[in-house]
Amino acid sequence: APVKVSKICCIGAGYVGGPTCAVIALKCPHIKVTIVDLNQARVDAWNSPDFALPIYEPGLEDVVRQARGRNLFFSTNVDDAIEEADLIFVSVNTPTKKSGVGAGFAADLNYVELATRRIAAVATSSKIVVEKSTVPCRTAESMRTILEANSKPNCRFDILSNPEFLAEGTAITDLFGPDRVLIGSLQTPEGLDACQSLKDIYGNWVPEERILTVGLWSSELSKLAANAMLAQRISSVNALSAICEATGANIDEVAHAIGYDSRIGPKFLKASVGFGGSCFQKDILNLVYLSESLHLPEVAAYWRQVVDMNEYQKRRFSKRVVDTLFNTITGKRIAVLGFAFKADTGDTRESAAITLIKDFQSEKALVNVYDPQVEHEQIWADLQEASPLVPLDSIKKQVTLCKSALEACKNAEAVVIATEWKEFKEIDWEAVYAGMNKPAFVFDGRLLVDAEKLTKIGFKVTTIGRPS
Ligand code: NAD
Ligand code: UGA
């Protein structure tokens, strides 16, 4: 019969483990939820008395305030949390491998394996182990082999796949009302029982028809497939934006027109300077690697093109800035508004802003950067990582971090909008104009500002997906 879960452990207190399990704790006051991580600073931040949480996510603080200390705990004591739990989420990072076989494509499963080995080493009772991390198809099988080879007598491990579909910036609303929760299990009686145990947890707030139960491998693959298809929509619309710029068509009008087709749908068709975030590129490359390993080179090439198009879009945009500024930006001051990979997050992983700034640096421009959420230390770390051979001191001679959009735009030749923060729409553009060198250029990489209004003020406006 299905186990009634009373204690949950989540390994990994990151962007996924933290919000996901905080919401489970909030919605299931009868379950004790302990989120563990090896990173002491991260755990301290989750526990901080003034709720200075390690990630910025609208609504998250409220959830943590309600549940923390009641039935939600954050700790670095991984072993105790594993030992007492009936169900364990593995929500560790699975970055793209940087070296070895599959470098640049395959997912680095080292953290998943270490967490799995820890579970096997510590557990003295049966556990349901849930893959929350995004992993290649058939990872659950490796986890099972490791667990079974290292387990103590009378311990059984049932493995489930339960990929997470939340998007950053809307994590809490996504978790409160998910489009669907996906649970994959072996179709054996034990597997189906484990599946039911997890289903009962989500059943505390998610309507039953939104909880999909499928086979393990379908569940693992569905996560990669969903991200690949979402990213593909953006690359498709971005490819069309290049045609628009060359022909006089307007990408917003085109997206609106095609989105009206109920088979296509209106969401996720916003042209941009390129998608970022920790997952789209990583998961597509993972899918490419999987396809190649399965000797399906045509399939691999097909998905690969989604990432190639994204790289092209970023390069195309920075080239357009240089072209428009009379083919040189040497010594010119450029204000980059936004550094996060999308609005309403402080996350910068794979942000298009990093590529743009690097391109401007190599053209010897002076760059002012402002983002309302991202910590300055993070920006320096990202710029250093993007140019490992350039000493940070030299980067700091070219790049200045600013405290407001207005300050960033002062004495600049051009403003580049890299992130769709709402506050950029509401800047006092008259004041920005007054403070800039003339002609004053705006490059809108996010279809954010009212180009007509800015043109009336005097700006020369260039918008993605519209002719100059
Ligand atoms: P993250 O880097 O923010 O968090 C992972 C955490 O796991 C880190 O704090 C790390 O210290 C910890 N960790 C690693 N190994 C550990 C171990 N052995 N024991 C204890 N802690 C350990 O990563 P994330 O953004 O939360 O992503 C986690 C997974 O979820 C990835 O597979 C990712 O693809 C997937 N995912 C992410 C998102 C997203 O929006 N970020 C959405 C859906 C799925
Ligand atoms: C994405 C998916 O939306 C989630 O379902 C998934 O769980 C998650 O990846 C993951 O696996 O990590 P996320 O990366 O947080 O979520 O954010 P998105 O809203 O998907 O945006 C990704 C990037 O695409 C951003 O840079 C965004 O600005 C860009 N984007 C998005 C566009 O350029 N145009 C659009 O129409 C939508």
Automatic annotation (TrEMBL):
Active-site residues, Swiss-Prot/TrEMBL:
279 (nucleophile)
The entry's protein name is: UDP-glucose 6-dehydrogenase
Question: Pathway, per Swiss-Prot/TrEMBL?
Answer: Nucleotide-sugar biosynthesis; UDP-alpha-D-glucuronate biosynthesis; UDP-alpha-D-glucuronate from UDP-alpha-D-glucose: step 1/1
> What are the recorded Gene Ontology BP terms?
glycosaminoglycan biosynthetic process; UDP-glucuronate biosynthetic process
Q: Does the keyword Lyase apply?
A: no
Keyword list (alphabetical) reads:
NAD, Oxidoreductase
What Gene3D superfamilies does its record include? Cytochrome c1, transmembrane anchor, C-terminal (1.20.5.100), NAD(P)-binding Rossmann-like Domain (3.40.50.720)
Q: Which family does it belong to?
A: Belongs to the UDP-glucose/GDP-mannose dehydrogenase family.
**Binding sites annotated in the UniProt record for substrate:** 164-168, 223-227, 263, 270-276, 341-342, 446
Which residues does the record give as NAD(+) binding sites? Answer: 12-17, 37, 42, 92-96, 133-134, 168, 279-282, 349
The UDP-glucose/GDP-mannose dehydrogenase C-terminal domain, residue ranges = 335-451
